[in-house]
Specification:
The chain has 310 residues and is of the alpha+beta class. It has two domains: 58-116, 2-Layer Sandwich (Dna Ligase, domain 1); 122-307, D-amino Acid Aminotransferase, Chain A, domain 1, CATH 3.30.470.20. The chain is 26% helix and 28% strand. It has helices at residues 33-39, 42-52, 65-72, 100-107, 161-178, 212-215, 220-229, 294-307; strands spanning 11-13, 28-30, 59-62, 77-81, 91-94, 112-116, 122-130, 135-137, 141-146, 149-155, 182-190, 196-202, 242-249, 269-272, 283-291. The strands form three sheets. Strands 7, 8, 9, 10, 11, 12, 13, 14 and 15 form a nine-stranded antiparallel beta sheet that branches. The longest helix is centred in the middle third of the chain and has 18 residues, at 161-178.
């Protein structure tokens, strides 16, 4: 692939799923193209999960209002764009009260699937790094969501060791089934009864794992470079008993400057992304805090979350 200035790129590392697969033929690409093509499409990845033996919420491809209403049959579901969705964009919770106009407007955006809306105890994510001859998983992390946007992360997840190991096995299984190499953020729902349901996979560095920059033996970014460059993979273990992360989201009227700044400088690690265009829900930075108990960490993050503007 020829880059700006006529230079030829030997290796491409992807940070999103918005690049058409046909543009990526030529240089080595991480994630590898076969896996990227699957995981950028919510229907293809769900079908792969089923073939791999993972449990998923009930789902179906839909292209008409009639198909949506038939799937719902009086229940609540979530419409999802097959490609291009993130942080709640491209998702719509639907039920019998939704008008035909609302449903048609969503379908007009492009191919979609619908899933049953399930009740769950927590959402979790685990990073899988896969190289030609090795595969490693990062600690399982809880992702604490609000309006389909991750607000906080806690690692390790407050789940039994056996359940965390199952989540890691399932995450490795679907990545290996894709044949892909690179870095993958695999998301699951966990029910109160301990049932694990596959949600989706991001074939790239993932927001839920930014805590690895400060709390693991290797960050998710370092692991991706190791896989892409053919280096031995470092075991990505935690260097602290617990770690929490607060996503710093844009606010109405914000200018990209974090205020107040002082509380974020007393402890922990502050990372700002240099974005000047602030809008509600946009990820402008994150703050990482290590500690000895979940209560200590989450209590501090809750206080900070109430105070800031950016």
């Amino acid at each position: 692939m020829e880059a700006a200035g006529g230079k030829t790129e030997d290796v491409l590392l992807l940070e999103n799923e918005f690049v058409p697969p046909e543009w990526l033929r030529g240089p080595a690409c991480y994630p590898t193209l076969s896996a990227y093509t699957i995981f950028r499409d919510k229907l293809l990845e769900k079908e792969l999960a089923v073939r791999t033996g993972l449990r998923t919420p009930r789902f179906s491809a839909v292209s008409t209002v009639c198909e949506i209403r038939s799937f719902l049959a009086g229940t609540t579901g979530v419409l999802k764009a097959r490609t291009g969705g993130y942080d709640g964009y491209g998702n719509l919770t639907v039920d019998a009260k939704c008008t035909d106009a609302t449903l048609n407007a969503f379908l007009a955006r492009g191919p979609a699937i619908i899933e049953e809306k399930i009740t769950f105890l927590t959402e979790v994510a685990v990073m899988v790094v896969r190289a030609a001859n090795d595969v490693r998983t990062f600690p399982v992390a809880e992702t604490l969501q609000q309006d389909h946007v991750c607000r906080q992360v806690l690692a390790p997840a407050r789940l039994s060791p056996a359940l965390q190991e199952k989540i890691c096995r399932d995450a490795r299984a679907i990545v290996e089934a894709s044949g892909g190499e690179g870095l993958f953020g695999v998301e699951f729902f966990v029910s109160a009864e301990g049932t694990v349901l596959y949600n989706e996979t991001a074939p790239r560095p993932h927001n839920s794992a930014h805590f690895t920059l400060d709390a693991c033996e290797v960050s998710q970014f370092g692991a991706l470079l190791q896989a892409a460059l053919g280096l031995p993979l470092t075991e990505p273990v935690l260097k602290t008993p617990w770690v929490g992360m607060l996503n710093l989201l844009g606010t109405s009227g914000g200018d990209g400057e974090l205020r107040p700044l002082a509380p974020f400088l007393k402890a922990g690690a502050l990372w700002m992304y240099g974005k000047k265009d602030s809008r509600p829900g946009r990820k402008m930075g994150h703050y990482t805090l290590c500690g000895t108990t979940p209560a200590e960490i989450l209590g501090r993050l809750d206080l900070l979350q109430k105070e800031y503007r950016v």
